[in-house]
Design goal:
- The chain is of the alpha/beta class and 589 residues long.
- It is 62% helix and 10% strand.
- Strands 6-7-8-3-9-10 form a six-stranded mixed beta sheet. A four-stranded antiparallel beta sheet has the order 2-1-4-5, with no helix packed on it.
- Strand 9 and strand 10 form a beta hairpin.
Length: 589
């Protein structure tokens, strides 16, 4: 509990103080109520006026009724504040590091899920709701035991030892069961993924056409039960001990009540004190139980452990991709891949093993090759989403590792193969190419015009303000080709705002023939004065580049212009003629 109070205080000190204070005050009310009912019984036993005790009971009851909604509301508000802050910390830990390796690591994704409480459905904020009840029960327990101690001091020691033993055993047992669930984080994430597939509209077309919904439901049930059986098995392991401890507790409490009853019968204990002691025994028994009020804080502490681990990993990732040199105006001369070697984490086969390439600034370069040749990895290394395992990437003879990764990326204007499709306004989908210039509407419109996307904007129901999804009121859905035009416009906005390297990874893959032809016709306009790297299987785009390289198995095997490579008669010529033949056959048909 002290750790939770410290964490919650950093989120909102005032609310945390209110919750703890109200919990403390409520913890005193029940023992006070116990004393007041004892006083009432004593007054009736002595034929005295019970009015003072009745008034005290009424006041205490009224205070309790007033404080209950205050406690609940304050706990709810603090819960939402805590969950928002924890989510913010998780988002920062995943988003702040400049690379990709940490968010493609299953152990990091497990920790992110656990840190938000998504694995068990108990968020860290749930402990904020329970915090006042924890404080109340602690005060309630100690005060109730003090009342029992006024009767027989040694009974407090016996009850304290038994309560502590039973509580600790139940807490440790719950922790063990919870750890089984957290140890199955990877499997549970897969279970939740299957559930998402059955509920998400983005995959609904194919799941229905192929009749996959029953398979998803059955697989979800099967994999969920597999995880749950391990948890249920661990939960059953200590039932004999739990039953034994419960029996011991019943015996001790039974002896305590028997003592009170015997002393009352023999006249050694007045009725008023007997009533108070009996109620205190019942109250201490209830307060010492390990139940939901304690499970939420246990889960919260596990979530905080995972969050600390996540932030430590993020700090390591940030340090690993550190760099502080300014990248303004780069590249002025060249970008050079010098004997670069790279293998993805968790894999054994290298993508690049001695890859070298010089890229002339201000010119266009096309990269072609079969799937898996390393073309997209090339872009990730250029964007410094990963650092190479060996060799160097030099920008104007400066090692890319020395450049500030954030500043270097401002020099890039990419259209990735799996480009961004944001369910926000059409304007923001373009303007996010440069947040610092987001409000430059003129530059946004110019970028859209350069990308040939102006007719698309004019067709939208609310033009620039149209939200690009049907899931929100007034929104609309775009086709794949229309999304790709906006992605191209976003990159052109970045170029308009000063980016010097345009990266086009399959820039027309989702476009129809007419849209593709329009982009080809604008190729020189798109690439004018910009270092351009085009990755494509469409040779009608590739042939317009100043220079073309062919990559196979992570190495360059051919290098030249379109005409030079055709004359060479190698891999490029073979691929080009094969694709051209298909168009000729289609035309003849």
């Amino acid at each position: 509990m002290p750790r939770l109070v410290r964490v919650f205080s950093r989120v909102h000190p005032g609310l945390t103080a209110l919750v703890v204070g109200v919990g403390f005050f409520q913890g005193l009310l029940l023992p006070a109520f116990t004393i007041a009912t004892g006083a009432l019984a004593a007054a009736l036993d002595d034929d005295r006026s019970p009015m003072g005790a009745v008034v005290a009971i009424g006041v205490l009851f009224t205070l309790q009724r007033i404080l209950d909604p205050v406690t609940a509301e304050a706990g709810e508000v603090l819960m939402r504040r805590v969950d928002e802050r924890m989510t913010e910390r998780v988002m920062t830990a995943l988003a702040l590091p400049p690379g990709l390796a940490h968010i493609e690591d299953p152990t990091v994704l497990d920790a992110a899920t656990q840190a938000q409480g998504a694995l068990t459905g108990v968020t860290p904020g749930s402990a904020a709701v329970q915090l006042p009840y924890l404080v109340k029960r602690l005060v309630w327990l100690l005060a109730s035991l003090a009342i029992v101690g006024s009767y027989r001091w040694w009974l407090v020691l016996v009850l304290g030892v038994v309560y502590a033993g039973v509580f600790r055993f139940q807490r440790d047992h719950f922790h063990d069961v919870t750890q089984v669930m957290h140890g199955s984080a990877d499997a549970l994430r897969r279970v939740y993924y299957l559930r998402t597939l059955a509920l998400t509209h983005t995959v609904a077309k194919e799941t229905r056409v192929f009749g996959l919904a029953p398979w998803f439901v059955d697989r979800y049930r099967s994999e969920w039960l597999t995880v749950m059986r391990g948890i249920w098995s661990r939960r059953r392991e200590h039932w004999p001990q739990i039953v034994g401890l419960a029996a011991a507790l019943v015996v001790v409490e039974g002896v305590a009540f028997a003592l009170v009853a015997d002393d009352v019968v023999d006249g050694r204990l007045r009725v008023g004190l007997a009533v108070a002691v009996a109620q205190a025994l019942l109250a201490s028994a209830a307060a010492a139980q390990f139940d939901w009020a304690f499970t939420a804080p246990t889960e919260a502490n596990i979530a905080l452990d995972k969050l600390d681990d996540l932030e430590a990993r993020a700090a390591t990732a940030i340090q690993r991709l550190a760099g502080d040199r300014d990248a303004a105006g780069m590249p002025k001369a060249t970008i050079r891949f010098d004997d670069v070697r790279f293998t993805y984490p968790g894999r054994h086969e290298p993508v690049f093993d001695g890859f070298s390439l010089d890229i002339e600034a201000g010119r266009s370069l096309a990269i072609v090759g079969e799937n898996g040749a390393g073309k997209t990895t090339f872009v990730k290394l250029l964007a410094r989403l990963y650092d190479p395992d060996g060799g160097r990437i030099l920008v104007d003879d400066v090692d890319l590792r020395e450049l500030d990764p954030v500043e270097w990326r401002k020099r890039l204007a990419p259209v990735f193969q799996d480009f961004l499709q944001l369910e926000v306004s059409a304007y923001d989908n373009v303007a996010f190419g440069n947040l610092e210039r987001r409000h430059d509407a003129g530059a946004v419109e110019a970028a859209v015009d350069t990308a040939g996307a102006t007719p698309l904007i004019e067709r939208l129901p609310r033009r620039w303000d149209t939200v690009l999804t049907r899931e929100f009121s007034g929104g609309t859905q775009l086709s794949g080709g229309e999304w790709q035009r906006l992605a191209l416009a976003r990159a052109m906005f970045a170029v308009h705002c000063g980016a010097g390297v345009l990266v086009l990874d399959e820039p027309t893959a989702a476009m129809d023939v007419r849209g593709e032809a329009e982009v080809y016709d604008r190729f020189l306009e798109l690439t004018k004065g910009v270092t351009t790297i085009v990755i494509s299987h469409r040779f009608s785009t590739v042939r317009r580049a100043d220079r073309i390289v062919v990559v196979e198995h992570g190495r360059i095997v051919e290098d030249g212009t379109h005409d030079e490579l055709l004359a060479l008669g190698g891999t490029y010529a073979s691929m080009y003629r094969l694709q051209a033949a298909r168009f000729v056959e289609s035309s003849d048909a």
